[in-house]
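Tokens for chain A. Residues wanted.
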């Protein structure tokens, strides 16, 4: 589904979006995680790891594009959804504090609901105050601390995090 919200358009990612998604992910990951995660996870998130994962995950990704036909469109952010989990929410620094993040999160919630789930969840590290504030403003509730198991090159890495949940609107 493609939705339009002012100048923000949300659409499924295409393979050619992967480099832009990787760049937003690489930079945004540092903004949200430096100082907030174990060293082992920091070491695992090499620059090239974001290129690999962005390309592999196109099918789970929706992007926000802003602009118009004259000025051209740029990818301003993305979300990745798997089953009932909103796995990634990233907005390029120059598009934060705009309508982009909320439009992406709404699309992520729509995807979870469309897959038949009544409740969505996500993991956020405790020190990522901006993301936590953003989720809370959008109706997500802190369900408490838990050990998130992040994917690393040699298996999973234990990352202390908070689980956030949101009850989705009931569907007929
Ligand atoms: C998380 C993210 C998608 C949110 O999008 P955004 O456009 O920045 O969100 P908003 O600006 O609408 O909302 C952020 C809120 O945090 C507040 N905030 C900003 N900086 C903050 C800080 N350092 N500490 C606490 N709150 C902060 C803002 O004032 C705003 O709250 P308000 O609505 O009460 O004013 C975006 O910041 C991002 O991509 N961050 C880097 C990647 C990341 O951490 N992703 C989430 C991984 S779980």
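Reply:
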């Amino acid at each position: 589904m493609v939705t339009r919200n002012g100048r923000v358009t949300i659409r499924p990612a295409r393979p050619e979006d992967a480099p832009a998604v990787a760049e937003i992910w690489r930079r945004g990951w540092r903004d949200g995680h430096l100082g907030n995660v174990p060293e082992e996870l920091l070491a695992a998130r090499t620059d090239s790891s974001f290129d690999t994962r962005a390309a592999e995950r196109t099918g789970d990704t929706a992007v926000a594009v802003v602009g118009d036909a004259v000025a051209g469109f740029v990818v301003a952010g993305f979300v990745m959804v798997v089953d009932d989990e909103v796995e990634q929410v990233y907005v390029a620094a120059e598009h934060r504090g705009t309508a982009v993040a909320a439009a992406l999160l709404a699309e992520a919630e729509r995807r979870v609901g469309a897959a038949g789930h009544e409740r969505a969840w996500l993991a956020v590290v405790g020190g990522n105050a901006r993301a936590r504030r953003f989720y809370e403003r959008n109706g997500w509730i802190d369900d408490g601390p838990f050990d998130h198991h992040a994917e690393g090159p040699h298996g999973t890495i234990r990352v202390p995090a908070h689980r956030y949940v949101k009850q989705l609107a009931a569907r007929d």
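The chain has one domain: 3-167. The mean pLDDT is 94.
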